[in-house]
Amino acid sequence: MGNRVAREDYEWVYTDQPHADRRKEILAKYPEIKSLMGPDPRLKWIVCMMVAIQFLAFYLVKDLDWKWVLFWTYAFGSCINHSMTLAIHEISHNTAFGNNKAMWNRYFAMFANLPIGLPYSASFKRYHLDHHRYLGGDGVDVDIPTEFEGWFFCTRFRKFIWIILQPLFYAIRPLCINPKPITQLELTNVAFQLTFDILLFWLWGAKPVVYMLAGSMLGMGLHPISGHFIAEHYMFLKGHETYSYYGSLNLLTFNVGYHNEHHDFPSIPGRRLPMVKKIAAEYYDDLPQYTSWVKVLYDFIMDDALSPYSRVKRKLKGDVKQE
């Protein structure tokens, strides 16, 4: 458990990200893929149903013994809340109401944010679009761990702790790498969320609040679904910076496992990404892919060649236009 990781730096490259060129090539060969772009009319109803399920859960846990509150927090609440974060990821690409109703998407994301307990939907939108536009960009892409994370979490035990603490690092990292001025939408998100949290505590006490907040933290830490954080862009094979996962957990995560397809076509809703893979199969079938996020977590911890430094990073050229 004390073996140190061999890496001492990121994988620096001097090429552009692969997704833009592949998108152009695929669209030239299969222009019908354009018909898959645009909002998913089912998404808003699925999100409303999930929010309602969590509201019902808040009511049901208020009278349970604490041991059962904690059990259901990890067994159920963490799954739903992590799924809600990926619903917000979908909405950040305007797939709920379309590009013509951008503000509807922003406020709907705040509604989807309610069962998570921590206000983050407005900030996530700003940073996530930079991640797509400048994948691996030094000082811009906050999905890449900081120098401290790469340096300190360099043994198997420390990597295990790092995975548990992933929610903390995802919250702090933007402030260290690429801090941005606070916007009015972010302030609205905070006010809306805190009002909801206080109202929940006032109505039903501490247990629903613990179920909500602990579920979000546990679901994004050491949890099978959180394997997607590692699977998406950590360099398990040299020369590959994005990986797809085609397992059953895509049913809970809005097909975020189709990650090569998502970065190639970020305006296509998750529900339609399997159709992209089917149409342009020759572009995706031979790319490295995963069948288990649990195995991804295990391999990341146990493989002494892997660490938070195992990310492709590039110096950006020209003007950088951020959200």
Automatic annotation (TrEMBL):
<keyword id="KW-0413">Isomerase</keyword>
<comment type="function">
    <text>Has sphingolipid-delta-4-desaturase activity. Converts D-erythro-sphinganine to D-erythro-sphingosine (E-sphing-4-enine). Catalyzes the equilibrium isomerization of retinols.</text>
</comment>
<feature type="transmembrane region" description="Helical">
    <location>
        <begin position="43"/>
        <end position="61"/>
    </location>
</feature>
<dbReference type="InterPro" id="IPR005804">
    <property type="entry name" value="FA_desaturase_dom"/>
</dbReference>
<keyword id="KW-0560">Oxidoreductase</keyword>
<dbReference type="GO" id="GO:0016853">
    <property type="term" value="F:isomerase activity"/>
</dbReference>
<keyword id="KW-1133">Transmembrane helix</keyword>
<keyword id="KW-0472">Membrane</keyword>
<keyword id="KW-0256">Endoplasmic reticulum</keyword>
<protein>
    <recommendedName>
        <fullName>Sphingolipid delta(4)-desaturase DES1</fullName>
        <ecNumber>1.14.19.17</ecNumber>
    </recommendedName>
</protein>
<keyword id="KW-0444">Lipid biosynthesis</keyword>
<dbReference type="GO" id="GO:0042284">
    <property type="term" value="F:sphingolipid delta-4 desaturase activity"/>
</dbReference>
<keyword id="KW-0443">Lipid metabolism</keyword>
<dbReference type="GO" id="GO:0005789">
    <property type="term" value="C:endoplasmic reticulum membrane"/>
</dbReference>
<dbReference type="InterPro" id="IPR013866">
    <property type="entry name" value="Sphingolipid_d4-desaturase_N"/>
</dbReference>
<keyword id="KW-0812">Transmembrane</keyword>
<comment type="similarity">
    <text>Belongs to the fatty acid desaturase type 1 family. DEGS subfamily.</text>
</comment>
<feature type="transmembrane region" description="Helical">
    <location>
        <begin position="107"/>
        <end position="124"/>
    </location>
</feature>
<feature type="transmembrane region" description="Helical">
    <location>
        <begin position="68"/>
        <end position="87"/>
    </location>
</feature>
<keyword id="KW-0275">Fatty acid biosynthesis</keyword>
<dbReference type="InterPro" id="IPR011388">
    <property type="entry name" value="DES1/DES2"/>
</dbReference>
<dbReference type="GO" id="GO:0006633">
    <property type="term" value="P:fatty acid biosynthetic process"/>
</dbReference>
<feature type="domain" description="Sphingolipid delta4-desaturase N-terminal">
    <location>
        <begin position="5"/>
        <end position="43"/>
    </location>
</feature>
<dbReference type="GO" id="GO:0046513">
    <property type="term" value="P:ceramide biosynthetic process"/>
</dbReference>
<dbReference type="Pfam" id="PF08557">
    <property type="entry name" value="Lipid_DES"/>
</dbReference>
<keyword id="KW-0276">Fatty acid metabolism</keyword>
<comment type="subunit">
    <text>Interacts with RLBP1; the interaction increases synthesis of chromophore-precursors by DEGS1.</text>
</comment>
<dbReference type="Pfam" id="PF00487">
    <property type="entry name" value="FA_desaturase"/>
</dbReference>
